[in-house]
């Protein structure tokens, strides 16, 4: 049964056709039970699935520990439940790094994504988070367009921080050069919008919004294409 389900399929993330499973593109751990029934799943090899599972947890802790997400019911309930439990049991990788590196700091730090505002801040695994956001977009892309983004595209992921986050949506959706599709929403944890070039749909721009408050942008660019980001948008890098 399992075999025929994945016949002719490949892992959406690495292209392998061996040991395929299903991956929840927007991690299931960002939702609470009962889970929404419209979760997006894609074929994924065992190797990628277990690597992504680690980053899924990391992302959950990153998002729910952020004061920005605390007006969201799901984020609040995860924080007081699963996340607190993981911290108590010393199983939150993010919290361990945070405890090790925390120092008074600005909201944004060089080359990294920062955990908290107005309090202690620490650099987190920015590289891991960028990979996680790229994976999410890779999965959403496959779900929407039915083919896999190969290694000939690059992903540029960035968080939009307050206070820019406030202005961000009005700026971006009034940018006339982009034709937006969306939002696609899953529960109250996740929404996303997407705009792509008609001559090459791989060339696309994604806005992921977690818990109504934490926007992340991802540019997908085929390496064979030259492009310029619209000047009107000032995004954090
Ligand atoms: Zn894989």
Keywords:
binds zinc ion, disordered C terminus, two-stranded antiparallel ribbon, alpha+beta, five-stranded antiparallel beta sheet, 237 residues, 6 helices, globular
What does this structure look like?
The termini are far apart. This protein has a domain at 140-222. The model is unreliable at 115-120 and 229-237 (pLDDT under 50). Strands 5-9-8-7-6 form a five-stranded antiparallel beta sheet, with helices on one face. The radius of gyration is 18 Å and the shape is globular. The longest helix has 20 residues, at 126-145. It is built from six helices and nine strands. It has helices at 2-5, 46-64, 73-88, 93-101, 126-145, 164-173, and strands at residues 20-24, 41-45, 103-104, 120-121, 153-159, 181-186, 190-197, 200-210, 214-222. The chain is of the alpha+beta class. Helix 2 (46-64) packs across helix 3 and helix 2 (46-64) packs across helix 5. Zinc ion binds next to strand 2 and helix 2.
Strand content: 15-25%
Report the sheet with the most strands, covering strand number, pairing sense and barrel closure.
Answer: 5 strands, antiparallel
The tally of beta strands, per DSSP, is: 9
Using only C-alpha atoms, the radius of gyration works out to 18 Å
Q: Ligands in the structure?
A: zinc ion
Q: Report low-confidence residues grouped into runs of 5 or more.
A: 115-120, 229-237
Structural class of the helices, strands and pairings? alpha+beta
Which of globular, elongated, flat, extended, rod-shaped describes the shape?
globular
Discrete helix count = 6
How would you write the strand order of the largest sheet?
Answer: 5-9-8-7-6
